[in-house]
Amino acid sequence: QVQLVESGGGLVQAGGSLRLSCAASGLTFSSYAMAWFRQAPGKEREFVAAITWRFGSTVYADSVKGRFTFSRDNAKNTVYLQMNSLSPEDTAVYYCAASKGYSRSVTGYDYWGQGTQVTVSS
Q1: Phi then psi for 108, rounded to 5 degrees?
Q2: Which end of the chain is flanked by fewer CB atoms within 10 Å, N or C?
Q3: Is 1 exposed, middle or buried, given 0-12, 13-18 or 19+ CB atoms closer than 10 A?
Q4: CA angle, residues 60, 5, 102, in degrees to nearest 5
């Protein structure tokens, strides 16, 4: 049974930082591309960042490029999203996802975590 468990969300002031973690189990972690999506109230779930399984290459949405850093530790079956220079527009529930192939689409991912809330106050 595949499980993705996010942690690290919370309340932070604008300009602050948070680091999200996603621990995976029940899959061959090093063979999966991983991604972060987010969903704000009343909006569709949107792509934030992805990391490939083979070379650890990263891709970011334009809205977070230069502020967020996605990394993975295959030895710990965990990925991390370091979020800096946060703004109220980053407020959302952040979801971790896993797929055999890289994608920017929600439909491209097979497994999802339960989400962690990130709230940025102005």
Answers
A1: -85, 0
A2: N
A3: exposed
A4: 35
